[in-house]
Write a structure and sequence with these properties.
Elements lengths: L4 E5 L3 H12 L3 E5 L3 H8 L11 H10 L3 E4 L2 H4 L5 E4 L14 H10 L7 E5 L7 H12 L5 E5 L9 H6 L4 E4 L3 H10 L1 H4 L5 E4 L1 H32 L3 H9 L20 H14 L5 H24 L8 E5 L14 H11 L3 E5 L4 H7 L4 E2 L3 H4 L5 E4 L4 H4 L3 H7 L4 E4 L6 H6 L3 E4 L3
Length: about 425
């Protein structure tokens, strides 16, 4: 099969990146979003709703080329589509499960307009059996629809999403029929022709692969973060330990960088959803459950670390914070460590003035009582201590002598280990790294 017309339901992080990248390799892509403001911003003003390096330029390029379109009308976008991707949000519900209301609503809105053979692709991160639920909705609403429901999880890292989509380390699809497999092979031919691997399995396995992969990576991050305290206690260097571990090909170095706990749109939500799914089926994923609990404890321990560096009393102390987003190269504040650490610093009497290259607007909505600064040096002006919370490149290249000049005190709590103690000392700063 040779699909040409694709429809992407949702223009959030996954939908907009996926739709734009499919257009980049030559498909005709229509993105649907019922949010009128977002639609107008994208279609009329070229305003991108998320911060992702390279995305804005690629959107404009493909709109100008006539391959990327935006609409709020399902009747316009769905009938001509060979493949319809559901790429809507699946936020965490109160019980830890994934909220599938947006996915189910999208299925109901797609169903009446399906014409000819169509694959409906779950691109959203969804728990096992979601494909079955979507297929049931489609057939209830439109019994005559000639449709297959596919699982095709995304593996996009925020800040590197364009590269991840266009040069994937693997493409996973879950299908239940040979015809669906043929369609998905045709869809990803521009990638497999370049040597990128396509792994085809059944739908349930594909759905579980995404959650299992993220839970494993979250566990890997949490493992090295737990070693921080032990390294402090015995005089070891956590960076040396993680490097030595990562040199083992069975372990590998990625996701072994110590820090103040994982966050973002995927790891917290997906570990919770996987644990909840397991409990629903009478299975106890003890390692995943412990990872969730330990990660939160690690975030909370960073407050104690900062307070200890300041002599055990935060009352009246000014703390300059560098970084708010959960990681560099994104404005995503979902489950960011800053949301645990900074309000607690304020609660203990500290005055917090913060800077982030991309996330200030989102952070100010979530933490309105913080003072926000326009530059890194402004954030540390008059500070008794500086806390490095996110590993933005611009922080790595700070002139430490200027940091010292701006501060009132000399303490730097480096929660990303961006600097050496020697470089800090040469600037007159007292370095408090993690596990070193």
């Amino acid at each position: 099969m040779n699909p040409r017309n694709l429809t992407m339901i949702g223009t959030g992080y996954v939908g907009l990146v996926s739709g734009t990248c499919f257009a980049e390799v030559g498909f005709n892509v229509t993105c649907v979003d019922l949010n009128t403001k977002k639609f107008n911003d994208l279609k009329e003003n070229g305003v991108i709703p998320i911060y992702e390096p390279g995305l804005e330029e690629m959107v404009k390029k493909n709109v100008a080329a006539g391959r990327l379109h935006f609409t709020t009308d399902y009747a316009q976008a769905v009938p001509q589509a060979d493949a319809v991707f559901i790429a809507v949000g699946t936020p965490q519900d109160e019980d830890g499960s994934a909220d599938l209301s947006h996915v189910e609503a999208a299925a109901r809105q797609i169903a009446p307009y399906l014409q000819g053979y169509t694959v409906v692709v779950n691109k959203s991160t969804v728990p096992v059996t979601t494909g079955t639920r979507v297929e049931k909705i489609l057939r209830e609403v439109n019994p005559s629809a000639d449709v297959d429901v596919i699982s095709n999880p995304e593996f996009l890292r925020e800040g590197e999403a364009m590269e991840d989509f266009l040069k994937p380390d693997r493409i996973v699809v879950g299908v239940e029929t040979p015809r669906a497999e043929a369609m998905m092979r045709g869809l990803y031919k521009p990638f497999t022709d370049q040597g990128y691997p396509l792994f085809v399995t059944n739908r349930s396995s594909s759905e579980l692969i995404k959650y299992a992969a993220n839970a494993f990576l979250a566990t890997k991050i949490t493992f090295v973060n737990e070693l921080i305290g032990l390294c402090d206690a015995v005089g070891a260097d956590v960076l040396a330990v993680s490097k030595g571990m990562g040199m083992d090909a069975r372990i590998a170095p990625r996701f072994l960088q110590p820090g103040p706990g994982y966050g973002g749109s995927c790891f917290p939500k997906d570990t919770n959803a996987l644990a909840k799914t397991a409990r629903d089926y009478g299975v106890n994923l003890r390692l995943v459950e412990e990872t969730i609990t330990t990660n939160q404890a690690i975030k909370e321990s960073m407050v104690e670390r900062i307070e200890k560096a300041l002599g055990g009393n935060l009352k009246g102390k000014t703390i300059g914070v560098l970084g708010l987003a959960f990681k560099a190269n994104t404005d995503d504040m979902r489950d960011a460590s800053a949301l645990t650490i900074l309000p607690e610093l304020q609660k203990r009497g500290a005055i917090v003035q913060a800077y982030d290259p991309a996330a200030i607007e989102r952070a100010s909505q979530l933490m309105p009582t913080l003072t926000y600064s326009a530059t890194a040096l402004e954030a540390v002006q008059g500070a008794d201590a500086t806390v490095i919370l996110t590993e933005w490149h611009e922080f790595r290249t700070l002139d430490l002598s200027q940091v010292k000049k701006a501060m009132r005190g000399s303490i730097v709590v480096d929660l990303r280990n961006l600097f050496t103690t020697e470089s800090m000392a040469s600037a007159g700063l007292t370095h408090h790294p993690l596990g070193r």
